[in-house]
Design goal:
Elements: E1 2-13, E2 19-30, E3 35-39, H1 46-53, E4 61-67, H2 91-101, H3 106-119, H4 135-143, H5 148-157, E5 161-164, H6 168-174, E6 177-180, H7 187-202, H8 250-270, H9 281-294, H10 296-328, H11 330-343, H12 352-359, H13 363-387, H14 391-399, H15 404-438, H16 447-456, H17 460-485
Parallel strand pairs: 3-5, 3-6
Antiparallel strand pairs: 1-2, 1-4
Helix pairs in contact: 2-3, 9-17, 10-11, 10-13, 10-15, 10-16, 12-13, 13-15, 16-17
C-alpha cells in the first residue's frame, strides 16, 4: 500500500484568536512495503502529521491518499507514543483488541497475541492489568516491538510503515528513507533563530567559567561546619507526610454505633424522655421480632422491595441510556442537556399527585416516582463519565478499526463505569426516600404504610421498629461506602 501526502497543512487557533501553523505544505510519499522514518525538531508537526495519516485528525488543507488499500480491513493502525492501554483489559486483552476488531476468531487471536507477548518479553504477565505493570512494561505493551523486534516483524509482514522518532541514529538504523520536517515559519521560528544568532555571537565571554584545575567542581563540599567544628551532626530523616495518613479506625466506627445504642437505652431506662416519644432499643427489637414471627413484617418488606426493584431498574436503565446518548452524540446533547437541566430541580415527590392522575392509585404511579428519582442522578453521572473518557483511548480504538458502537461498548462505557457506580449509590438513597414517601399515599402494604399506620394509632414502638427497616438499609450503604473508601 502506497501512501501519498500532498500539500498537507494543519492550522490551530490559540486562545487569543491567532492562527498557529502546525504543518504547512508537507508533501512526500511512502512506497509500498517501505519503512520511512519521520524526523525533525520538537514542534515541527511529526505527531500531527501521523495523526492526520491515521485519520484521527482533520487537516486544514491538502489530502492523504492510499493507493491499492487491502480490502476488508482498516487502512491504518497507529501505535501511540503514550501508554494507550485500556485499564479494564489485561495485557493479553489489550494486545488482542486490534485483532478482535478485525473479526479474527478467538483461538487464532489468542495464539497471535501470546506470540507477540512472548516477543516483547512479557510472558507470564498476560493476565495482569496495566496498573500492575511498570512504566517500561506498559510501554512495551503499547508500542509492542521496537527497533530490532519491529524490523523483524516488518521483514516478515512487509507492511508500509511511517515511523516517528527524535533520534537520528534510530532513524538511519531502522528506515529505508528518512523524511525531515522543519518548523513552519512563524513567531516561534523567529525566536529560535534570534536565540541561535545570539549564542553564536556571545563567544567565550558568555560561557560558564571552569576552575583552573581543568575540572568542574562536582563533588559535595565537606568543609568544617558551623562554628569551625569538623564534627558533622547526623539528623535522622523523618516521615513528614505522616499527618496526611487516614487510618481506617474500624473499631472506632463500631464503637460509635454501639455507643449511640447504649446512650439511647440509658435515656429510655432513666425516664428522661417518656416511652411514648422514645421507646427503648430493646422494646423496638422485641416488637420487630414479634412482627417477623407473625409474618407481618415480611409482607410489608416484600411489597416495598418489589416496588423498589422495579423503579430502580427502570430508572437506572433509562438514565444510563440517556446519559450515554447525551454524552456521545452532539444532537442528543443539544436536545437533552437543557431538558435535564430544566426538570432536575423539581422535587420528585411533588410529581406524585400528577402521576396518580395519569397512572392511577395503583403500583405504576409509585414505581414511576421512584424511577424518576433514580433517572436523574444516573443520567447526569453517566453523562459526566462519558465526557471524561480518555480521548487517547478512543483514538487508539478508532485506529484499530473500531466503529461507533464498538467504541461505546468497549471504551466509553468502561471508562464511565466509576461515575455510573457513583450514580447508583446516589440513586439508591433517593429511591429509598421516595419509596417510603410514596407508600404513605393510598396503599395497603409496604414499609411506608406500616410507619404511617403505626403513627396514626400512636404505636411508637411499632413505628420505630418499622422505620428501623429503612434506617438499617441506610446504615448498610454507609458502612459499605466507608469500607470501600478506606485504605
Amino acid at each position: 500500500m502506497r501512501i501519498v501526502i500532498d500539500r498537507v497543512a494543519k492550522t490551530y487557533v490559540d486562545h487569543r484568536g491567532h492562527a498557529v501553523d502546525a504543518l504547512r505544505d508537507v508533501s512526500f510519499s511512502v512506497s509500498s512495503r517501505e519503512l520511512v522514518a519521520l524526523l525533525g525538531p520538537s514542534g515541527c508537526g511529526k505527531s500531527t502529521l501521523l495523526n492526520a495519516v491515521a485519520g484521527l485528525l482533520p487537516m486544514s488543507s491538502g489530502e492523504v491518499t492510499f493507493e491499492s488499500p487491502p480490502p476488508g480491513r482498516p487502512l491504518t493502525a497507529m501505535v501511540f507514543q503514550e501508554f494507550a492501554l485500556f485499564p479494564w483489559r489485561t495485557v493479553q486483552g489489550n494486545v488482542e483488541f486490534g485483532l478482535e476488531e478485525l473479526g479474527m476468531a478467538a483461538a487464532e487471536r489468542g495464539r497471535k497475541a501470546r506470540a507477540l507477548i512472548e516477543m516483547t518479553g512479557l510472558a507470564g504477565f498476560e493476565a495482569r492489568y496495566p496498573h500492575q505493570l511498570s512504566g517500561g512494561m506498559r510501554q512495551r505493551v503499547t508500542r509492542q516491538l521496537m527497533q530490532d523486534e519491529l524490523l523483524a516483524l516488518w521483514e516478515q509482514a512487509r507492511t508500509t510503515i511511517l515511523y516517528v522518532t527524535h533520534n537520528i541514529q534510530e532513524a538511519v538504523y531502522m528506515a529505508d528513507r528518512v523524511v525531515v520536517l522543519s518548523r513552519p515559519a512563524g513567531p516561534s521560528a523567529g525566536r529560535d533563530r534570534r536565540a541561535a544568532e545570539a549564542a553564536a555571537h556571545r563567544g567565550d565571554a558568555g560561557r560558564d567559567r571552569i576552575p583552573r584545575g581543568g575540572r568542574a567542581d562536582l563533588v559535595a563540599h565537606q568543609g568544617p561546619g558551623e562554628g569551625g567544628s569538623d564534627r558533622m551532626n547526623r539528623v535522622r530523616v523523618t516521615d513528614r507526610t505522616r499527618f496526611l495518613g487516614r487510618p481506617p479506625h474500624r473499631a472506632l466506627r463500631v464503637l460509635a454505633l454501639i455507643g449511640l445504642v447504649v446512650l439511647w437505652e440509658a435515656l429510655a431506662r432513666a425516664g428522661a424522655v417518656p416511652v411514648l416519644f422514645l421507646p427503648s432499643p430493646v422494646g423496638v427489637l422485641r416488637e420487630g421480632w414479634d412482627m417477623l414471627l407473625s409474618g407481618e413484617l415480611l409482607v410489608h418488606l416484600g411489597a416495598s422491595l418489589q416496588r423498589l426493584a422495579w423503579g430502580f431498574v427502570i430508572g437506572s436503565v433509562l438514565g444510563i441510556a440517556i446519559g450515554v446518548a447525551v454524552g456521545f452524540f452532539a444532537v442528543a446533547e443539544a436536545i437533552g442537556t437543557p431538558l435535564i437541566a430544566a426538570t432536575f430541580p423539581i422535587p420528585k415527590i411533588a410529581l406524585l399527585p400528577l402521576l396518580i392522575l395519569w397512572l392511577g392509585l395503583g403500583e405504576p404511579s409509585k414505581i414511576a416516582v421512584i424511577a424518576l428519582g433514580v433517572f436523574f442522578p444516573m443520567a447526569i453521572n453517566t453523562y459526566a463519565g462519558v465526557r471524561q473518557a480518555e480521548p487517547l483511548l478512543i483514538r487508539a480504538a478508532v485506529s484499530f478499526g473500531a466503529g461507533r458502537l464498538s467504541v461505546i461498548r468497549k471504551v466509553v462505557l468502561p471508562s464511565a463505569l466509576p461515575m455510573i457506580v457513583a450514580g447508583l449509590r446516589l440513586a439508591a438513597g433517593t429511591a429509598r426516600l421516595l419509596l417510603v414517601a410514596a407508600e404513605m399515599i393510598a396503599v395497603e402494604s409496604g414499609v411506608g404504610f406500616l410507619v404511617l399506620h403505626a403513627d396514626n394509632i400512636m404505636a411508637t414502638t411499632k413505628l420505630r421498629s418499622a422505620s428501623s427497616c429503612s434506617r438499617s438499609w441506610g446504615c448498610y450503604r454507609t458502612g459499605a461506602w466507608a469500607a470501600s473508601s478506606g485504605p
